[in-house]
């Protein structure tokens, strides 16, 4: 059982991977059931457990876990929503020699195991299932979900009436619902149980980046020169510029960035932008935080886009069709409002929409929020485990843009730069703790390196 990591598979991809594994479904269910029993043993600490079993293989996992837990001496009972419908679940139920209660009138227990539905959920939970599920979950001390909390859309993270779990044990791989809201916040802590199925996908969970320390041959230019362009709200660009410096850039130039800045950041005027962009040592430009939307601001964005420099576009620089297959590395960092303004409402999940947008504009996109999605042209995407919700405060996005600039400047390819930036931002927020403000991220960033 490991923290959420690795590939992210849709329900259909998971099904294909199970088949491709060459391992019998019976064996896979035995492994899943065993992993579930171990989780209940570990997190339930031997307290009495009630296992809710649904009609499919998710229910099958529940019957197998119950049999093992009973053999290990746990006081375990089962309540089912009906008779199993799959061959494997029928066999798993037949191997359980205890009683099977009715979900509707099941008695609550300190440990509730939710094995009603997993990747096979196709629609809203009916009231006759949702009502007892919520009643029993509210009465339990701990809720452990098998694979997914029953009632979340596996691929889009929609809530179809799920009860919140404390622990979700995902089998074989994470699914989008473990990372996309609102489902992600219904999962509690997500753990992966590897059951021998090899999973390959171009969507993965954000991982800790490899950030090399400066070496003996490094100097300020090899570590990366970043330009941050300021505008009407000086604080925003100051946050970006300081974040770039604090996340390892060797040289940061603030163009038109006024206000409180570390002395290490070099200040230049707006009319020096064009000259500075011609400097071949420039490794990244960050433009948008606090820029404003004047004609002058638009001209500066156009200059930055036309330059050959790697670029982070944020805030006011984000507009529909602002970049189209720009040849140099480009990262866009929209929040939900900016994303919709740029790409429309679109169809599908946040993951689908971000991937479509990345293909459309030919740039890496960090679609921010409580379930940040990073996507690049060609389909590569990264889903980010929930970061501290204290990030929901003004200026934290400006900090992220600055970090992304520093990551491009250290030579990372755009997708890797975006991932490293989101990881550092999230880690800095974790260290900053409760009540943090954007400025606090700046002090924590060096610790995250
Ligand atoms: N990953 C792995 O390698 C392994 C995965 N395994 C496990 O298999 C699980 C997937 O199993 P699964 O495909 O049988 O689907 P599952 O979620 O049990 O439910 C399907 C049933 O629910 C029904 N139904 C659907 N929605 C409903 C609703 N709203 N309200 C009411 N009913 C609804 C649906 O009926 P239908 O839509 O056909 O009417 C069907 O009867 C997976 O999550 C994991 O736990 C392991 O066992 C082996 C290795
Ligand atoms: N509830 C939340 N949980 C986790 N992260 C969040 C949450 N709300 C916002 N964030 C993060 O905080 C940052 C906010 O960025 P943004 O909305 O651009 O703010 P600003 O423009 O004020 O800097 C983003 O990185 C976003 O992912
Ligand atoms: K479940």
UniProtKB/TrEMBL annotation:
Gene from which the chain derives: nnrE
Species annotation: Sphingomonas paeninsulae
InterPro entries per record: CARKD, Nnr, Ribokinase-like, YjeF_N_dom, YjeF_N_dom_sf
Family (UniProt): In the N-terminal section; belongs to the NnrE/AIBP family. Belongs to the NnrE/AIBP family.
A Pfam entry, by short name: YjeF_N
Protein name, as recorded: Bifunctional NAD(P)H-hydrate repair enzyme
One annotated GO biological process: metabolite repair
Keyword NAD belongs to the record: yes
Binding site for AMP: 368-372, 397
């Amino acid at each position: 059982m490991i923290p959420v990591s690795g590939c992210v598979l849709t329900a259909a991809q998971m099904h294909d991977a199970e088949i491709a594994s060459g391992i019998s479904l019976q064996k896979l269910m035995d492994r899943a059931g065993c992993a579930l029993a171990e989780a209940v043993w570990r997190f339930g600490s031997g307290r009495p457990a009630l296992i809710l079993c649904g009609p499919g293989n998710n229910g099958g996992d529940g019957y197998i876990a119950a049999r093992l837990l009973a053999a290990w001496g746990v006081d375990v009972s089962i309540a089912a929503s009906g008779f199993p419908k799959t061959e494997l679940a029928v066999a798993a139920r037949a191997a359980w020699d205890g009683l099977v209660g009715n979900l509707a009138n099941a008695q609550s227990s300190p440990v509730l195991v939710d094995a009603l539905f997993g990747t096979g959920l196709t629609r809203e939970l009916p009231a006759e299932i949702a009502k007892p599920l919520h009643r029993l979950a509210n009465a339990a001390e701990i809720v452990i979900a098998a694979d997914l909390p029953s009632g979340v859309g596996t691929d889009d993270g929609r809530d179809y009436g799920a009860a919140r779990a404390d622990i979700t044990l995902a089998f074989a791989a994470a699914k989008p619902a473990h990372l996309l809201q609102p489902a992600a916040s219904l999962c509690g802590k997500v753990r992966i149980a590897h059951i021998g199925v090899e999973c390959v996908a171009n969507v993965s969970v954000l991982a800790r980046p490899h950030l090399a320390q400066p070496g003996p041959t490094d100097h300020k230019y090899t570590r990366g020169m970043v330009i941050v362009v300021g505008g009407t709200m000086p604080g925003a660009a100051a946050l970006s510029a300081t974040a770039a410096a604090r996340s390892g850039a060797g040289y940061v130039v603030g163009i038109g960035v006024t206000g409180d800045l570390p002395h290490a950041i070099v200040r230049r005027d707006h009319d020096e932008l064009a000259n500075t962009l011609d400097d071949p040592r420039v490794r990244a430009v960050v433009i948008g935080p606090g820029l404003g939307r004047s004609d002058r601001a638009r001209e500066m964005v156009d200059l930055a886009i036309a330059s050959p420099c790697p670029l982070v576009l944020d805030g006011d620089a984000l507009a529909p069709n602002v970049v189209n297959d720009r040849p140099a590395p480009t990262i866009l960092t929209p929040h939900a409002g900016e994303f919709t303004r740029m790409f429309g409402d679109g169809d599908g999940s946040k993951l689908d929409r971000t991937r479509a947008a990345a293909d459309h504009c030919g740039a890496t996109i960090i679609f921010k929020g409580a379930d940040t999605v990073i996507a690049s042209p060609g389909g590569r995407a990264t889903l980010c485990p929930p970061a501290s919700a204290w990030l929901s405060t003004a200026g934290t996005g400006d900090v992220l843009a600055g970090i992304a600039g520093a990551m491009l400047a250290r030579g990372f390819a755009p997708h890797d730069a975006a991932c490293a930036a989101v990881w550092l931002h999230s880690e800095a927020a974790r260290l900053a703790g409760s009540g943090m403000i954007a400025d606090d991220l700046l002090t924590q960033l060096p610790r995250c390196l």
